[in-house]
Amino acid sequence: MSLDVSGCYGAPDAPLVIPHRAGAGLATENTVRAARRSLALGHRYLETDARTTRDGVVVAFHDRTVGRLAGAGGAISALTWDEVQRLRFRDGTRVARLDALLTAWPGVRWAIDIKDPLTLPALLDVLRSTGATRRVCLAGTRDRWLAAARDGLGEGLATALGWESIGRLLGWGRFRPPGHGPSYVHVPYPLVRGGGARRVVARARDAGLRTVVWGLDDPSAMHRLLDAGVDGLISDRADVLREVMVARGAWAPTGPRAGAQRVGLDPQAGERVVGRSALPQRAGSDPQAGERAVGRPTLPQRAGLDPQVAGSGVGTTGSGAVTLDGPAGALRAARS
């Protein structure tokens, strides 16, 4: 039994709270372990990245190369799936196929960041074959990538404003709504850290967009942004997101078995899928993996440190550096 999804991505949920890279603050980013721990807390949405192997398999992976996480050289696009699936991260986890993630948790909704245009055809095939189009929001650097995706999959696909257009939306140039009809704008936290969130939200709403801020782990900052009217948050810390929403009386966790995987469908092709339910759990226990998860933080975790593997050198994402490029106001988000 899977989560009852009413309508497309984002409807009727507000605000959206989305673990970044499937929950990078609780396990190695974009892995099955990270997803399981986020879902065990009751999350209904996850964010991930899409890249393609040399033989056309779409994987949930952020970086161009595998070195940061696997300690080995090589670009994802230069490796076959057989080579990629043999890689191990420092905590024993490994790269997950996107189609298997979408199939294993058929009730979960995903924000997927397209990392390069060559991934797009294979990604569209995955969304068609898994029937996941209506529960996905695609994001990416270029609006033309997202327009191609919308043309290929139809209006049931939700999209976010391309990175190249965010600066113009926020006032650094003339903004024209792109042709793919985005529903969301994903704003890096550094752009609203010092205030101005209400102005950003107002400009987005004038353009028919819902504002989702990403790259923050501090609960106080989350509360301030929600008070300012943002429509969603994306954070490495799935546990902090949950606690903020609980404190606001706005936590709407999954149903009793919403996080359960279908038996036999293993995104890592090496771990047995547990058919157990994922009831919302207190941070600190992980019913899916039987391992201790991260408890409530007293202070925001330092960017770059994964508390699950402290001392091993496995890093999480951080918020990255954000710069504005010249008078055209093109926004560049350097996400490490």
Give a structural overview.
The protein has 336 residues and is α/β, with parallel strands linked by helices. It has a single domain, classed as Alpha-Beta Barrel (TIM Barrel), CATH 3.20.20.190. Helices cover 25% and strands 16% of the residues. It has ten helices and twelve strands. The strands form three sheets. Strands 4-3-2-5-6-7 form a six-stranded mixed beta sheet. Strands 1-10-9-8 form a four-stranded parallel beta sheet. A two-stranded antiparallel ribbon has the order 11-12. Strand 11 and strand 12 form a beta hairpin. Helix 4 packs parallel to helix 5 and helix 5 packs parallel to helix 6. The chain is globular, with a radius of gyration of 18 Å. 49% of the residues are buried.
Would you identify the CATH H-level superfamily? Phosphatidylinositol (PI) phosphodiesterase
CATH class division: Alpha Beta
Beta strand %: 15-25%
In whole angstroms, how far apart are the ends? 37 Å
Helices and strands, in N-to-C order? Answer: EHEEHHEHEHEHEHEHEHEHEE
| Class by SSE composition | alpha/beta
The CATH topology turns out to be TIM Barrel
Mean pLDDT: 79
CATH architecture tag? Alpha-Beta Barrel
- SS element count, helices: 10
- Oligomeric organization of the protein chains: single chain
Helix content: 10-25%
> How many E-type strands?
12
Q: Give a quick account of the main beta sheet: strands, pairing sense, barrel closure.
A: 6 strands, mixed
Strand order of the largest sheet: 4-3-2-5-6-7
How would you describe the shape?
globular
Q: What low-confidence regions span 5 or more consecutive residues with pLDDT below 50?
A: 1-7, 255-259, 269-336
